[in-house]
Amino acid sequence: MTRFTLKGLTLADGSVANIVVSDGRIQSIGSDVAGEEFDCSGLVGLPGFVDLHTHLREPGFEQSETILTGSRAAALGGYTAVHAMANTHPVQDTAGVVEQVKTLGDEAGYVQVQPIGAVTVGLEGKQLAELGAMAGSKAQVKVFSDDGKCVSDPLLMRRALAYVKSFGGVIAQHAQEPRLTENAQMNEGPVATELGLAGWPAVAEESIIARDVLLAEATGSRIHICHLSTAGSVEIVRWAKARGISVTAEVTPHHLLLTDELARGYDPIYKVNPPLRTSKDIQALRAALIDGTIDIIATDHAPHPAEAKDCEWAAAAFGMLGLETAASIAQDVLIDSGLSTWARFAEVMSQTPARISGIAGQGLELVAGNRANIAVIDPKAKRLIQGGGASKSSNQPFGGMTLPGAVIHTVFRGEFTVKNSKLAK
Amino acid sequence: MKHLLSAADLDRHSAIELLDIASEMSGVNEREIKKLPTLRGKTVVNLFFEDSTRTRISFEVAAKRLSADVINFSAKGSSVSKGESLKDTAQTLEAMGADAVVVRHHASGAAHALANRGWISASVVNAGDGTHEHPSQALLDAYSLREAIHASPAGQSLEGLKVAIVGDIAHSRVARSNLTLLKTLGAKVYLVGPATLLPGALTAQADGFSYSLDDAIEDFDLDAVMMLRVQLERMTASFFPSEREYARIWGLNGDRLSRLKSDALILHPGPMNRGLEIDAKASDSKNSLVLRQVANGVNMRMAVLYKLLAGGSIND
Predict the structure, then answer these.
(1) Is the pLDDT of residue B75 over 90?
(2) What residues form DSSP beta bridges with B69?
(3) Which CATH architecture has domain B135-293?
(4) Which of A205, A421, B101, B120 reaches 20 to 30 Å from B204, CA-CA?
(5) Cα–Cα distance between A383 and A404 in angstroms, integer?
(6) Taking phi first (over 0 means left), then psi (-120 to 50 degrees means alpha), and beta for anything else, what does residue B136 get?
């Protein structure tokens, strides 16, 4: 039985307390001390982070990432749970594959790996995958997504939304109208025109979101919008929420910080789907995250091997790393800006993603008796970002930037996975 | 100057200097023995991932007239078609001793990648990258215009010259490079084409734009009209309804020619779709610079290779 005390920790409400962890649970929060003591003065304790959008690449693309290496990166980022996207090979579209992913996650043991199921067979957008079988499997899948591809067929989307109601599921839509983005390379706008790269119009995202919130309303179902990236998308989600539609939305760290200006050097490290947008979009996304229109930060951590990025822009893969830098960007947007609170931080990084997914034992408040899933961060630290960290890939878009905050400890089910910013196992 | 990647690499001074070097080179091309020893011992690789007989031959002739060794590498039937990456191909060619790589590639930014990613140390000349830039074409167009309007062109700019670029502006590397270079040289540039092919980010840089060639002829008092080739793939992607409609509204024909100023110049980068963007009356008129563009292409590319590989000005 492991027992230790995180001593003098500042909690999301600003109070300072000792957290005693024992036998996987929080034993007490207050002035008690037990077992080994870790000085946490000046550090902030939050519920372990939950990523609703992670590409762990296994099975099938182990040259990019494995469930083990991705889990380590997640733990170093303060995460205690990640949701493994379905675009593996074979695709996570059957009970067998999602159970395998869950099993590999359990064996790695750094975070809770919750598989996401594909909406359609093979992500092909033609026929519904066996959603019920995945929901009923040991992996208990509740979130379904064809992420990387849009469920663009309106009829299929309508059916999927309605079907998952029977087991409380949610469709996480990758909003990208395929005809409007054929061969698209980067955000449509002056930079794309100047660079001669095919543009990816905002309307390709917004038109799908508009359609799908209406479908969610018509079916009385729940929809989650992946990686919202434009100011217009924010307006549509805001309208839908005001209308009472059951919609939630995520934003990635990179869409909160990086703009399409970075494409100017044609370095495909900045090639991502959806593309980096403009500073005007960033302002809208930041404001929406603060005011609650956007519910969560999700990383869309998308590892790719060197050869997929060391080439001309058009030939490069879409995607960038994110697990080890997300908390820093959340801090930049919410805390260092002076515009929001640590309580909001805990919501967007942990509590709300856990609630959207219905994942058990995650996103729980730090109170006695709850599972001990805890992230401890040092908000005063400054980190120069270099390389890919624990990920097997190094497509790091924040390289060379100094970001605020550092994860010091991560406690997963009462055990350290990260201690003093190093992997603890 | 190490590379020529974009027309934006050139300020007015360096652009005029390059045009002047090209003027000097034209003397070589009029000699009986059309050859200079300047680049003897240097190796120029023409690395062409897209078919382009004209541009490749133009660079090849230019390099040979400067006594460089020339290697032509075309992607078809090579290791590239077996999946070799751009990086590996370029490094292989450099390992064989390339001093300059003239690259034509279907991906925008390919020349920038070769020049700036540390893959190779050779000079890179962008001979057309995707829908981005084609700076040597813009230079030879500027050269052709300058030669036509100035009795003694050396040292001259294109100050005040009013040029319309007509056609598929959105996908044209020729248009992008010309817009930049012509403006650098003091010309006024007008963009003309269907609204589907006329992006706001480029019209914002121009001195004016129109969706109608007739209006442009009426309103802009044009000194020169540069017609762009209509690419086959645009016709199948609903940018305009049909070839006939395109020719009717944006084609340069005898009727429109007669409404231009009598000395207005006609340019086309070739190859022409006769009867589509330009008809025979316009392309074969006395004001057409089309064949001068081809001839000047060699002089201009000699100047570029000279500048990159021999360095300094021609008087050094």
Answers:
(1) no
(2) B43
(3) 3-Layer(aba) Sandwich (3.40)
(4) A205
(5) 6
(6) alpha
Residues in B closer than 8 angstroms to A310, CB to CB, are 85, 87, 117
Contact with chain A for residue B204, Cβ under 8 A? yes
Residue A317, pLDDT > 90, answer yes
CATH assignment, B7-134+296-310: 3.40.50.1370
Q: Which residue of B has its CA nearest to A192?
A: B201
Contact B140, B21 (CB under 8 A): no
Determine contact: A265 vs chain B, CB below 8 A. Answer: yes
- Tell me, yes or no, if A300 is annotated catalytic: yes
Q: Active-site residue among A300, A310, A332, A378? A: A300
Residue of A nearest to B173 (CA): A196
How confident is the model over A392-420, as a mean pLDDT?
A: 98
pLDDT at B316 over 50: no
B87: closest chain A residue by CA: A311
Binary contact (A197, B86; C-beta < 8 A):
no
Q: Could you tell me if residue B250 is left (phi over 0), alpha (psi between -120 and 50 degrees) or otherwise beta?
A: alpha
User: pTM score, two decimals?
Assistant: 0.93
Measure CB to CB from residue B107 to each of A192, A267, A312 and give the nearest one. A312
Residue B263 contacts residue B287 (beta carbons within 8 Å):
yes
With cut-offs at 50, 70 and 90, classify the pLDDT of residue B314: very low
For each of the domains in chain A, give its residue range(s) and CATH number, in order of start: 48-364 (3.20.20.140)
Q: Please count the other Cβ atoms lying within 10 Å of the Cβ belonging to residue B292.
A: 17
Q: Does B170 touch chain A (CB under 8 A)?
A: yes
- Give the pair of three-digit tokens for residue A36: 């080994």
- End-to-end alpha carbon distance in chain A: 16
* Same fold for the pair B7-134+296-310 and B135-293: yes
Cβ within 8 Å, pair A196-B202: no
3-state SS string for chain A: CCEEEEEEEEECCCCEEEEEEECCEEEEEECCCCCEEEECCCCEEEECEEEEEECCCCCCCCCCCCHHHHHHHHHHCCEEEEEECCCCCCCCCCHHHHHHHHHHHHHHCCCEEEECECCEHHHCCCCECCHHHHHHCCCCCCEECCCCCCCCCHHHHHHHHHHHHHHCCEEEECCCCCHHHCCCCEECCHHHHHHCCCEECHHHHHHHHHHHHHHHHHHCCCEEECCCCCHHHHHHHHHHHHCCCCEEEEECCHHHCCCHHHHHHCCHHHCCCCCCCCHHHHHHHHHHHHHCCCCEECCCECCCCHHHCCCCHHHCCCCECCCCCHHHHHHHHHHHCCCCCHHHHHHHHHHHHHHHHCCCCCCCCCCCCCECCEEEEEEEEEEECCCCCCCCCCCCCCCCCEEEEEEEEEEECCEEEEECCEECC
Q: Where are the domains of chain B?
A: 7-134+296-310, 135-293
